[in-house]
Amino acid sequence: MPSADLCTEEEITWLVHTFYARVRDDEVLGPIFDAHVSDWPAHLAKMVDFWSSALRGTARFRGTPMPKHVALPNLQAETFQHWLKLFAQTTQALSNEPMRERANELAGRIAQSLWYGYQQYRTARDHEDVREVSRPQ
Hints:
By secondary structure, the chain is mainly alpha-helical. It has a single domain (9-134), classed as Globins (Globin-like, Orthogonal Bundle), CATH 1.10.490.10. It is 74% helix and 0% strand. It has helices at 9-25, 29-36, 40-56, 65-70, 77-91, 97-134. It is globular. Mean pLDDT is 89; it is low at 129-136.
């Protein structure tokens, strides 16, 4: 459960900004994010709101992440695993152990949910493509 006592807004801001600095420098994830994030300050602010809502229960986040993620081309399970690895490397530097554990747990669930949603969307889309091709003219 989210709790305002778990961490501070400053810790969340540090986590988000440090993590996405790693993402942008990463040879695997950097190009994916750079191709789809045009306004980094706005993206970072939205991610701070997301993690504040998830960890502290502030309910500031407004958005639907699934459609944005399923629209990305050619993602693999390894892409999500790589994202989690970078995230865990970032949280390792947190001195707040309860925050680190909770953030890693949530990140794992988020990655799993996004990957499952991505697969379902792609499968449904592929089936729709097959139906379109197989319809009589």
